[in-house]
Amino acid sequence: MQQALDLRARLRSADDHQFQSAFLELYVHESLDAAGYAVSIHPEVPGGTRRPDFVARRDGAAVYIEAIAPGPSDANRRASARRNDFLDTVNKVGDPNFMLDLDELTVGAAPPPGARLRTELRAWLRSLDPEASYDFANAPAFHWTHEDWTAAFRAIPKAPHARGTTPGDRAIGVYSHMPAAFVDDAPAIRAAIAKKHRAYGELEAPFVVVVGLYIFDTDLDQTTAALYGDVVYEWGRTADGEIVSRAARRPNGYFGAPPGWDNRHVSAVLTVSQLQPWSVPRAETTLWRHPNPAHPLPIGMAFPGDTMDLSTNRLVRGAGLSPADLFALPDPWPRGTAFPPRRKVDPEA
What we know:
Number of strands: 16
Largest sheet: 8 strands, mixed
């Protein structure tokens, strides 16, 4: 009963990370239950005091499962909350003639003075002429500082037909304060798995780590790099002097590389990306089997999504269960209108 109460509290939490972690555990539990496993929550493990999330039993075999939804550190979450409060403050400026380009932003260690910031921005925007010939390069600029906060804005005139304000308008029209960067989620995936992989000692049964992700990895390149190593290109020269190249993988994947495979106590990693209550049939779910595990996962282990196997040094994808079929979900899911209009209430009634 206490476990159910704890799960319900996390599902109701206003903290996104608490909700996502709890919903991932619920998703895994219901997947196993729908596939005919007898599931026990927080089972005891031989010789240890810590307990994984689940043990699933079927046909006389047991599989231990640990689910983790990696999130930012507490310090980063607090900084993110302060940044979001700042953006909400600026978006409420509500000028009828200009929208803002947020050009630079340094987040301070304490909440910013929201009312004062809005007052200064409104006064600055009222001093500008929306009929002047501004272009994006020479738009009027406003620099704001407060203690360790800094921000830079540019004013962009609204088109004449778009002037005025309506409820829900956001003052920031362009977010150009974030630099462009290459996306590399592989280190974060490896770190998430490593956070839990040794928590329960050497289990005498298959062990699966489930990782809940919110990354865009439809081609699976990031996860492949996390588990089997980053891709590098090797260059050489033939006896005839011809320069040739080939793609290879660095031995920095979580599973290592042949012949010295790493982390053999983890039989498989299940990645679940973009999981939300309304996206259960569309979540990107993939089971990655260890090429040489200490305890092989049963062939018929039923998780939604595809299965990846390393066969003859080549990664092979096998079609898996459809979440819609496993959970018997209707198409489309969810049913009904996503955002139904609210029924007006007559105060005189």
